[in-house]
Amino acid sequence: MIHLNSPSASKEGFARQIAQRDGITEGLIGVFTCVESCRTFALRRIGEKRLLTVVAAQRKCVFVYFYLMDRESGLMHVRLQTWLPMTFQVCLNGREYLAQRLERAGIGYEKRDNCFVRMDDLPRAQRMLDDLLERDWVRFLDALARRFNPFARKDNRLTARGYYWTFRQSEYATDVMFRDEKALAAVYPRLVRHAIDHFGSAAVLRIESTVNNPERFKVRREVTRKGPLEVAWVPMRKSVADIARRVAICRAANERYLEALAVVGEPSPTRQILDPVSRRVTREGRSYRALHPIDADEARLFSTLLASDFVLQQFRDRALRQRLFPACAGDAMAEKKASGRVTRLLRLLRAHRLIRKVPRTFYYRITRKGHHVMTTALKLRDIDVARSSAA
Known about the structure:
Layout: E1 2-3, H1 11-22, E2 27-46, E3 51-70, E4 74-81, E5 88-91, H2 94-105, E6 109-112, E7 115-119, H3 122-130, H4 137-148, E8 170-175, H5 181-198, E9 206-211, E10 218-224, E11 229-235, H6 243-261, H7 270-274, E12 281-283, E13 286-288, H8 296-305, H9 308-312, H10 317-324, H11 332-351, E14 355-357, E15 364-366, H12 368-381, H13 385-390
Parallel strand pairs: 1-2
Antiparallel strand pairs: 2-3, 3-4, 4-5, 6-7, 8-9, 10-11, 12-13, 14-15
């Protein structure tokens, strides 16, 4: 058991050193304690009578970190707050879990840090990870709580309620594996450049979605609404009960990023991409003007749509209006005009098939053609003519 003077010290680093030094392959590795901020209670005098009342408060107390090498989950840790309400956090890594499963199944692999660079049976490995969706997480987490928090056991002296398990933060990553280093080296610089220019990201081989505010998303489940049970789309909870929906949403977000990156390296002449949208089109009996791909106003629209948050999730006309016309905020007449202009722009982009409307919602999403056209147009505006001619 080691007390750390700084809460920012790398507890995982210490745990790995101890495990390697002592040859620990299963069981408890070590326990670390440190003082950190906590959400707890305090006594305050409230009201005219100045009665002592228990209130929520932000204070500091000792936290205990238990690091262990779990047979199923690999290196993991639990974090226990020593003051009431004794919050209990469990930190797991899906790749540690997968490595344990692969070892037991005798499937060959090569792992560097937190990344697999070789896998002898990818389909089977994916099925192993998918098994986590069917796991009884409440039972697993309750067992950990009883193991490390004596007050969570049935024979404790306090009449304490059990824990309600939620996600404080979840990360879902998609790794793109190449057949050899040469194949990756051939496209890597362009992927990085594309991500930096359009998504504001410097790492692209691992696409990762982190969910901190799940209520933005919907989940279909049974609810009671002034009467009997009914099935409806409701805000997603932080509860582990919605893990399957959370994974589906993160997987879809990662796929949208990968779709956006898929335009990199495709050998298509610029004219083949931009000529079709540079002509008038007719959709459902209505004629729409041609796009002007390298025009300054059109380029500003394209760069706004290709912002990372718009690529990650759908966008609404209001969000686009706020980005394109921020000066209109607070002016009712100006906002009305800007709203009408954005509506016309959205219709134009839909007519040219650069965006599509998500069914039964007010959200829009960029199409594959949209990514091709908009990224090509923006690149064309930034070409150094003198360098290009010299080349």
